[in-house]
Design a protein that fits this description.
This protein has 371 residues and is of the alpha+beta class. The protein contains eleven helices and 20 strands. An eight-stranded mixed β-sheet has the order 6-7-5-15-16-17-14-18, sandwiched between helices. The chain binds flavin-adenine dinucleotide and glycine.
Length: 371
């Protein structure tokens, strides 16, 4: 029987992880990337795998999807390393989510209450125990949730390894295409690059991140995916022993194995502009020493920004189109696309294999829900 051929539009973490899962199942894959793989939101990300720290409200399908992906990550990252022959940082650092006021303690307790129902080993830490865990933490911090099961990856290198793994497993990767236009999709998908080359396949996976909203006219659907810029910076942390992901309601700090400390991130609206602004970086710099006082004496050596694919309801668009089930959407992962890669890749492969998503994910994520 002829192997199914899948076209993937977009070579960020989501397109690459979909490709990886499909290749493992023996399908043919072509990735069509208008620029370079991992060059957009993916390459800008802090790489936190931290659903407990990032999702503070009651658990919803987005949280449970994140949690499923976190559980898959240890094995998945080993597979990526094995298939690519490349290494990248994956550190099970644990995290501290810090608060400054007595009035915030109640919030921590209710947060930890529901997290424990989902298997979290988290605990509230204060005083000496907190100082032992993170000796350089500011004494303004009165307590923190310690989540030992959160981790982080070095996202740009993880994406490079994933790209290499896909290549070695037989994917065709067409990058620097400048533009890719969908010429037909109702029956056999046909995509056209700026140089006029056409690509056809049995299935199309839309994984074009913050640009996905530009496909509304093509599909005749409302696709409320829009770019939210994240401005972010990095410090040299030489001589400073920082051990965990540290976050508060104001932002986060992630100590990387290469000796840097990544400090993010703004959430601002700038269209498709990936520049940084003085104000955006100043907001990080004017806050972060309240977490780690030694930062008051240092300046970031690198600043950058990326465009998160946000959606109107905060959930990704993940699923088949009802009238064209060979078209799969996998976009709108907003702040958690790195974390969500393993679970999204498997979900796309399941959808193409004919298995659906579990009901609670299908009902929350189906791509036509805004139309
Ligand atoms: P992208 O990585 O943006 O990839 C989309 C790709 O599609 C791009 O390469 C683009 O060129 C291509 N494309 C667009 N249109 C077309 C077209 N017509 N044809 C062909 N190709 C096209 N997530 C986490 O899990 N943890 C974090 O700590 C984290 N930190 C972040 C920090 C910052 C500052 C930012 C900006 C994001 C962060 N994120 C984090 C979010 C994460 O980066 C995104 O959710 C994830 O990268 C989205 O992946 P993607 O593949 O959908 O999008
Ligand atoms: N998940 C971190 C960010 O999006 O900034």
């Amino acid at each position: 029987m002829k192997k199914k051929h899948v076209l993937i539009m977009g070579g960020g973490m989501i397109g690459l992880s979909a490709a990886f899962s499909l290749l493992k199942r023996g399908l043919d894959v072509t990735i069509l990337e208008k620029s370079i793989c991992g060059g957009q939101a993916t390459g800008a990300a802090a790489g936190m795998l931290a659903p407990f720290s990032e999702i503070s409200e009651d658990p919803d399908p987005f949280f449970t999807f994140c949690l499923e992906s976190l559980r898959r990550f240890p094995e998945w990252q080993k597979e990526v390393k094995r298939e690519s022959g490349m290494d990248f940082e994956y550190t099970e650092s644990g995290s501290l989510h810090a608060v400054y006021h007595e009035s915030d303690l109640l919030g921590l307790e209710s947060r930890i209450g529901w997290q424990k129902r989902f298997g979290s080993e988290a605990e509230i830490v204060e005083g000496d125990r907190l100082q032992q865990l993170e000796p350089l933490l500011s004494d303004e911090v009165i307590a923190a949730i310690y989540s030992p099961d959160e981790a982080h990856v070095y996202a740009p290198e993880c994406a490079q390894a994933l790209e290499e793994a896909c290549r070695k497993m037989g994917a065709v990767i067409e990058d620097r295409l400048e533009s890719v236009t969908i010429r037909s999709w109702l029956n056999e998908p046909v995509l056209e690059a700026a140089d006029g080359r056409r690509f056809s396949g049995d299935h199309l996976v839309v994984a074009s991140g913050a640009w996905s909203g530009q496909l509304e006219d093509t599909f005749g659907l409302r696709i409320p995916v829009f770019p939210i810029r994240g401005q972010i910076c990095a410090y040299d942390r030489e001589g400073a022993d920082v051990r965990h992901i540290i976050s508060s309601s104001q932002g986060y700090l992630v100590p990387k194995a290469n000796g840097t400390l990544v400090n993010g991130a703004s959430e601002d609206i700038s269209g498709f502009d990936t520049g940084v602004t003085e104000k955006g970086i100043a907001r990080l710099v004017n806050w972060n020493y309240r977490m780690l006082p030694f930062l008051k004496e240092r300046q970031p050596f690198h600043t950058w920004a990326g465009l998160r694919p946000a959606t109107q309801d905060g959930f990704p668009l993940l699923g088949r189109l009802a009238d064209a089930p060979h078209v799969i959407f996998a976009t709108g992962h907003y702040r958690n696309g790195i974390l969500l890669s393993p679970a999204t890749g498997e979900a796309v492969a399941d959808l193409i294999d004919g298995a659906g998503l579990e009901d609670h994910f299908r009902n929350a994520f189906f791509p036509e829900r805004f139309s």
